[in-house]
Amino acid sequence: MSPLPKVSQEYKEKRRQEILDTARKVFIQKGFDQTTMTDIVEASGLSRGGVYQYFSSTDEMFRQITDRNDEGFENWIKKIIGESKTAWAAIENYLAEVEAGLLEPGVGFGIVQFEYFVFSTRKEERSSYLLKRGETAIRNFSLLIENGMKTGEFKPIQPTEAIVMFIININDGLLLQSLTLNKYEHDRVYVKEQIQGLKMYLKQVLQVE
Amino acid sequence: MSPLPKVSQEYKEKRRQEILDTARKVFIQKGFDQTTMTDIVEASGLSRGGVYQYFSSTDEMFRQITDRNDEGFENWIKKIIGESKTAWAAIENYLAEVEAGLLEPGVGFGIVQFEYFVFSTRKEERSSYLLKRGETAIRNFSLLIENGMKTGEFKPIQPTEAIVMFIININDGLLLQSLTLNKYEHDRVYVKEQIQGLKMYLKQVLQVE
């Protein structure tokens, strides 16, 4: 008797990512709290055991999707910094891409994250994850500011974290406003002007010449 | 036989407001989508008929609470404008009160409105209310800016609505960040600095001397 063929690590990872992609789509369509494991099993076309082998809950899937996004975000920020001539240009390039993304139609994973985090205020078991994720977001955004502090281009008059929180507020607010208002009227939200407004604040708070 | 005593209009209005106060508390405690009419009947201490005489759904109650808040907000803004020496002072006084409110502990009705609006992206029947409510918020915030345009103090370089959307983003973002992060650490959110940042933007966009 020959042994059963070994399922390669690579195959397993590919399958895991495919299940996450499916879960992501179902979460976007139904909302996180409304999605059950059964929904994802059905959408995946796999057996129940085939999914549970990789994930035991929707919460686990949500967190891995978010972690994957955060990692992608970090690499994206680093890439922009690497490709920009100055630290201020990196911020402008970053904001230009945010602006382009916001004007694209369709609901993305952002709304799912909103739901999860808004509801987390009532669900204690999500607290430590929420905090960890907050730290990650702050650290990633901080890269843009620290970059300019290193080169001497930025001389912030507020703590880096305060500036990052402000950027996150405008970012998240634009996302939420776009999702709720722009489906009725094109750019009811004034994406361009708000990004411009964020730059007015940043130039002043970072003391960019 | 004497006729049944007439329930006065005043009594009815008082009872209606009491039921709304109860509903507000239950929504804050359980979240809007998790609250049933039965929950509110039980919390009110009234009979089922006693509540249904005034309201037929939690949605109706939510909307009346929000409308009542919006009316209160409009009067509050007008009072601040009336009591402030200049249009810029009115904005500063408004923001000082926002700041004080954000540093108060406890979850308010804000989080319930967040839940309702975030979820509205999936619930078509909420769309027209969402839009109407958005218009009201924009109109009320606009009062602060138009006030300074009338006196010649403000010469905005962006459309009033774009400026209002930016203010709303920082306002809502501060509320959400405070609700999710400040319960772990006092002012992790940098409320003071963010309000200061909003002023940096406003001074520039309104061309305040």
From TrEMBL, chains A, B:
Domain HTH tetR-type, first and last residues per copy: 13-73
Pfam family, one: TetR_C_17
Coiled coil, from the record: none
Feature: DNA-binding region: 36-55
Recorded superkingdom: Bacteria
Keywords linked to the UniProt accession: DNA-binding, Transcription, Transcription regulation
GO molecular function, one term: DNA binding
Name used for this protein in its record: TetR family transcriptional regulator
Source taxonomy: Bacteria, Bacillati, Bacillota, Bacilli, Bacillales
